[in-house]
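REQUEST ID: PR-0412
SUBMITTED BY: lab tech R.K.
PRIORITY: routine
TASK: structure prediction, single protein chain
INPUT:
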Amino acid sequence: MRILICLLYVVMALGEVWAQDPVKTDSDKYQVVFENERVRVLQYRDKPGDKTTMHAHPDFVVVSRSAFKRRLTLPGGKSAMREFKPGEVMWTDAQSHIGENIGDTDTDVLIIELKEPRQPKTGRATPQLQR
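STATUS: complete
OUTPUT:
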């Protein structure tokens, strides 16, 4: 029974590490520029070679303000490489990752995190506005 309780604490602790707020884990790179009950807008800046710790985002939109190249490492070790151009906008589902600037330019992005959970799909059409 003690082993089971110890394992439970370890799993809970790992969950906390994997789901950390990036503003807390990487406060030198993330800054909250706006927040209300529905969204949180973060400014993220880093330099070539910079790397974040594991952190989590809810569903979010990225707005690139600079050209940059980075590697994202997901829990479990799978990684993906992404390149952005200034003005590029991208939707991303909720995820945890480590980010690393692997290019030769600074990263400057706005990240708009959604606070409201995604609504389940009902199969019904979205109501249209009346004109």
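NOTES: Residues 2-114 form a domain with the Jelly Rolls fold (CATH 2.60.120.10).
REVIEWED BY: pending
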